[in-house]
Write a structure and sequence with these properties.
CATH topology of the largest domain in chain B: MetI-like fold
Helix content of chain A: over 70%
Shape of chain A: extended
CATH class of the largest domain in chain B: Mainly Alpha
CATH superfamily of the largest domain in chain B: MetI-like
Largest interface: A-B, 65 and 63 residues
Distance between the termini of chain A: 58 Å
Oligomer: heterodimer
Structural class of chain A: mainly alpha
Radius of gyration of chain B: 29 Å
Chain lengths: 506, 401
């Protein structure tokens, strides 16, 4: 035994402890590994610190330390009066706040704007939270009911008729246009060498116009009778509700399965009736506030939200058109999308401001805000089409094939199978287009609309508040508003994206 | 009872159906006819209304106005222009100014964008944070906001010419713009340029030769001393013989303003700064995404082959990243060019500002002028996207090979 222990070495004492490895966790470890791990990195860290120091400190000093917080007019924000170097001039923002939020919206009517903001938030926030139920009703209310309600709330005014009158009016316009085109062609043929062709075409168009005239005669007659009655709006409303509900009942499957459609339609009409009654639309509604008085954040939000709501149907239609197998529709969609995506938004706004009024009948003077809205909607629609096309491409081919194997028509396949899935895929894309639209709304200040940026620029020219720091203060304030909106939305879009990709994470 | 094969349908009928209605056949044809009718109706309405409206406003349509005298001044022009020139000339003045601001903006945006992307990719936590904050702030503010910020706040707050901020005593920044040294050509200019051209040509030839030697015979030729000699030495020799190629005329403060030097108008400065910093944020994200899209294994494989870190980056990572970066980068360049139309907000005389702005309000020829302006931008973006398709096609081909 002793031999054995003598031939092998057995250590009798403990090995001296090695020094602990450099700490790589905690604050010290973090500084060591991420900031000071090599001479080059130390240099970069020092550079970064210097950079941060020279940007952050003056900014904070300007916004908080040196800022003037109270005052009645510009002298409060002058260095001589304040006794120190003056930073941001917050009293100026206080004085201009209503202008930046409401524009020149009459003070007595501002509750309408606030109510609209509240309604919008109450409908939008639940829509954004994936946990909450009833997305269908919620999005229906936000995308269809809210824009109409918001229009009557913000703009004011009432309605003189309802569905029957509007349909009759539109159809009459169409009929007159067709008839006019026919007459023009017949007249042209008198002075032209290729007389017969335009003459025949013109006569056909006149005949078509006449046919439409006789076809819609019951409708126009009904409208005239309703307008003569004592309660034109409600009479019209009841007739429209009855016709639409009956039609939906029949289309929904009659006595067999039509009850669901009937109940839905009646409930919708009850809601519309409540809206009309509450806002008093049948008695002229709220006092009209001209859109030239709107301004500030109100215009920014109106344009951004109308733009996104209006661009959705345009985008869906164009995206489906671009994937269509019918050549003419596909070519038209491609040309339309590429054209509007190829030009800058400002030229689109110029187009909407200067050219669009020339394209509509002369007595139809288009409101300045409406022109900008049309331009923005077309422009965003083209971008939206590409976003939605991406979503459509992401839906597996087998889905549409399975649907057609079940015997569904193209319309049913698209609306029940493909679109719901595609739209879910593109929520982040839609939010991203909303962010860029929100930023782009600032361009309307160039075509003489006073959005947030336009109101800000207008407020700079107020001599009562002209100080050396006014411009910086104004930009700091407006910048914070833009940043909060855009940054919040971009975080939301990331959140949705992560949620959609939850199954792919590992 | 024999089963006779059914007669195949007539080929020409099938072909006709296919040609007229696409895959959907006769239904598609009907849809197309209906769609064409609707389009024709809309077009008719537009033309008819436009004619009536133009007649009531007494505006003659057509492009004849382009030969009239413009009668207004433009405060920056690359070609000779005075107020008795035609609208055609105004169009070209605006177009050249747009191109100028776009090109310079693209150069700066690329440089800033790559620097910010390097910051964001840096292992240094502080630097990557600073890069991230820059990107977040700049991307979340409207570009018009930034243009106005630089123009109305920053440039307006600069001192008057007498108290100009001097940079190296050669550049002077004040509220009337940026005064830069003006290059004046000397007799040595042409020999210098010729020497430079020869140098570049020889260098390219050498590089080609060296690569062929490397790829075909595996022979490494060290060419950088010769390259240096061609690119730097030749011009130096020409300068020694013929004298300086350029002389820079330094601006001098005389009285209340500067004499000598060239003045860059503040609108140009504000527009260039705003556009390049704004686009740089997007470029930084594109570059970062491109570099991160290259799989980590590529880097590891490179170092296991014994390549140095720089060589791995240059030969393996960057070429793969470039494939991802180039298409969105081009679309950012296009965006910058389109955003340069916001010059109209601060009065920089670009195409939209002088042509679609001033010329429209003077002549009232809205349809023609706006159509021409849109056409220019459209042409630009369609050309770019065509080039990008060619690029994508080439990349796909080389990946497949």
């Amino acid at each position: 035994m002793t031999d054995l222990s003598a031939s092998s070495f057995v250590r009798q004492d403990l090995v001296a402890e090695r020094a602990a490895p450099a700490k790589t966790t905690g604050f010290i470890g973090f500084v060591r590994t991420r900031l000071l791990n090599s001479p080059g990195n130390i240099l970069l860290t020092i550079l970064g610190l210097l950079l941060a120091w020279y940007i952050v400190v003056p900014t904070l000093k300007f916004l908080l330390v040196d800022a003037v917080w109270t005052g009645k007019e510009r002298t409060a924000c002058l260095a001589e009066k304040a006794g120190h170097e003056v930073g941001a001039c917050w009293p100026y923002i206080q004085a201009k706040l209503t202008q930046l939020v409401y524009g020149f919206y009459p003070e007595a009517q501002r509750w309408r704007v606030n109510l609209t903001y509240g309604l919008g938030a109450a409908l939008l926030l639940p829509l954004l939270m994936p946990r909450l139920p009833a997305k269908g009703i919620n999005s229906g209310l936000f995308f269809f009911a809210f824009p109409v309600v918001a229009f009557f709330l913000l703009h004011g005014g009432g309605i003189a008729g309802f569905g029957v009158s509007w349909t009759a009016g539109l159809l009459q316009l169409f009929e007159q246009s067709i008839g006019g085109a026919g007459d023009l062609l017949v007249n042209l043929s008198k002075s032209s060498a290729i007389a017969p062709l335009p003459w025949v075409l013109g006569k056909v168009l006149v005949l078509v116009g006449l046919l439409i005239h006789w076809l819609i005669f019951p409708l126009t007659w009904l409208r005239d009778q309703l307008q003569l009655s004592s309660l034109p709006v409600w009479g019209d409303f009841l007739v429209t509700a009855a016709i639409v509900s009956a039609a939906l009942f029949v289309l929904g499957g009659g006595t067999r399965t039509g009850h669901r459609a009937l109940i839905g339609s009646l409930l919708t009409f009850a809601g519309i009736a409540a809206g009309i009654k509450l806002m008093g639309l049948d008695r002229g509604g709220f006092p009209i506030v001209d859109t030239r008085l709107w301004g500030g954040l109100l215009v920014t939000l109106v344009i951004a939200i109308t733009g996104i709501v209006a661009s959705m149907p345009i985008g869906i239609a164009l995206a489906l058109g671009r994937r269509s197998s019918i050549p003419l529709i596909r070519i038209f969609s491609i040309a339309f999308i590429e054209f509007w995506r190829g030009v800058p938004l400002i030229t689109v706004l110029f187009f909407a401001t200067y050219m669009l009024p020339l394209f509509v009948p002369g007595n139809f003077a288009v409101d300045g805000l409406l022109r900008a809205l049309i331009g923005v909607a077309i422009f965003t629609g083209a971008y939206m089409a590409e976003v939605i096309r991406g979503g459509l491409a992401a839906v597996a081919r087998g889905q549409a094939e399975a649907a057609s194997a079940l015997g569904l028509s193209w319309w049913k396949t698209t609306s029940l199978i493909v679109l719901p899935q595609a739209l879910r895929y593109v929520i982040p894309g839609i939010v991203n287009s909303f962010i860029s639209l929100f930023k782009d709304t600032s361009l309307v200040s160039i075509v003489a609309l006073f959005d947030l940026l336009g109101s800000l620029r207008a407020s700079f020219s107020d001599p009562n508040w002209s100080t050396p720091t006014t411009a910086f203060t104004g930009f700091a304030f407006a910048g914070m508003i833009y940043f909060v909106f855009c940054f919040g939305m971009s975080r939301y879009s990331l959140f949705v994206e992560n949620r959609l990709n939850a199954h792919r994470r590992h | 009872m024999s089963i006779a094969p059914r007669k195949p349908p007539l080929q020409f009928a099938l072909r006709l159906k296919r040609a007229l209605g696409g895959k959907t056949g006769w239904n598609g044809l009907a849809a197309q006819i209906g769609f064409a009718a609707v389009l024709a109706w809309i077009a008719y309405e537009i033309v008819a209304n436009a004619r009536t409206n133009l007649e009531t406003q007494h505006i003659a349509s057509g492009f004849g106005f382009l030969n009239y005298n413009a009668g207004f001044d433009v405060n920056q022009s690359l070609i000779a222009y005075n107020n008795s020139d035609t609208y055609w000339r105004v169009f070209f003045v605006g177009l050249l100014n747009t191109i100028l601001v776009s090109v310079i903006g693209i150069v700066f945006a690329t440089v800033i964008g790559f620097v910010v992307a390097l910051c964001r990719l840096s292992p240094n936590w502080l630097l990557s944070r600073i890069g991230g904050i820059y990107v977040e702030i700049v991307r979340n503010l409207p570009v018009l906001f930034q243009i106005l910020f630089w123009y109305l706040a920053v440039l307006a707050a600069l001192p008057a010419p007498r108290q100009s901020i001097s940079i190296f005593g050669a550049f002077f920044l004040n509220n009337r713009g940026l005064i830069v040294p003006q290059p004046v050509s000397e007799p040595g200019l042409y020999p210098f340029l010729a020497a430079l051209a020869v140098g570049i040509f020889v260098a390219l030839g050498l590089r080609h030769h060296a690569r062929r030697a490397l790829f075909q015979r595996g022979q490494v030729i060290r060419i950088w001393p010769y390259l240096l000699g061609c690119l730097v030495g030749l011009p130096l020799v020409s300068m020694l013989i013929f004298g300086w190629p350029l002389k820079f005329e330094l601006p001098q403060l005389k009285g209340f303003n500067f004499a000598g030097g060239a003045r860059v108008i503040p609108e140009f400065v504000a527009l260039t700064v705003a556009l390049s910093t704004y686009t740089a944020a997007f470029i930084a994200e594109i570059v970062r995404a491109g570099v991160m899209s290259v799989h980590k294994g590529q880097m590891e494989a490179g170092s296991s082959l014994g390549l140095s870190r720089a060589a791995t980056l240059r030969l393996i990572v960057v070429p793969q990243a470039m494939r991802v970066i180039v298409p969105p980068l081009t679309s950012q360049y296009l965006n910058l060019t389109k955003n340069s139309s916001l010059a109209v907000a601060i009065g920089y005389p670009d195409l939209v500002s002088v042509f679609a702005g001033t010329a429209v309000s003077q002549t009232g020829q809205a349809i023609e002028i706006i159509a021409m302006t849109m056409g220019v931008y459209l042409l630009l973006s369609l050309t770019t996207s065509a080039l990008m398709s060619v690029y994508g096609w080439r990349i796909n081909r080389s990946m497949a090979a």
